[in-house]
Amino acid sequence: MNVINGGKHADNTVDFQEFMIAPHNAPSFAEAIRMGMETFHVLKGILKKKGYSTGVGDEGGFAPNLKSNVEAVEVILEAITKAGYKPSEDISICLDPATSEMWDDGKYLFFKSDKSRKTSDEMVDLWSSWIREYPIILLEDGMAENDWEGWKALTNELGMTVELVGDDIFCTNPKILAEGIEKGIGNSILIKVNQIGTLTETLDTIDLATKHNYNCFISHRSGETEDTTICDLTVATGAGHIKTGSGCRSERVAKFNQFLRIERQLGNDARFAGRKAFKR
Predict the structure, then answer these.
(1) Residues contacting residue 33 through CB under 8 Å, at least 6 positions apart
(2) Which of 7, 114, 153, 160 is deepest in the core (most CB within 10 A)?
(3) Annotated catalytic residue within 38, 59, 140, 224
(4) All residues at 6 or more sequence positions from 6 whose CB lies less than 8 Å from its CB, including other chains
(5) Given 44, 192, 243, 279, the catalytic residue
(6) Taking the model in full, what pTM does it have?
(7) Is 59 assigned a catalytic role?
(8) What span, in angstroms and rounded, lies between the C-alpha atoms of 226 and 241?
């Protein structure tokens, strides 16, 4: 669940695009979504108490003008705890900083906060320090789509400890994914049906990823509708995890409702993946 928006998805001071929570320590999807919703609403109260705006960004996450990028992580951890859950044990954090939007003349421009620039090595160091300090289990687009050397360095550093998802770099394209597999880039791929164009190509990409032990992280788009096909795709392919937005806006909540229906239809055959869905 995308609970704080930044980057190009919100008019605020946060450089990174998506701060998400993964409520994984639950016996069922229904219980997991309850945990996520409770945390989402507690987060709203915390932001309001701190004097921050509780308006939402493109994907339904809050879009406050925070003092720093890391404050987004810290306020989410506060919300998890105040909602009665334990960070890492019950709910972990996933990030999509969308660094391709920050890529500028060979460096990463922090275009909304302090206007600083970081090299690829400095970005690897930044993510390493965050993952050591915070319960982050997934990092999507930690490096820009054109920074293949940076991606390789990031994978070498963190590929055995956290799920590294390629979105912009792979584009749900089996030919690009094959090159990434050969070069040892990431360990997971974001799957967007309308990014590649057809279900056939999407399933080919998922099949290639699975054969090479890459995870598949199914995804919505920012310009989303209430269509719930990606929910059925997630269950049918055994992908285990999906990002659909936050706990508000009907085009996001529609996906949660479809998962609840699927879980009820499956009955005793339903299995909630939980933390096992993530690379570790």
Answers:
(1) 23, 256, 259, 260
(2) 7
(3) 59
(4) 12, 13, 14, 15, 16, 17, 18, 19, 57, 63, 69, 72, 112
(5) 192
(6) 0.96
(7) yes
(8) 19
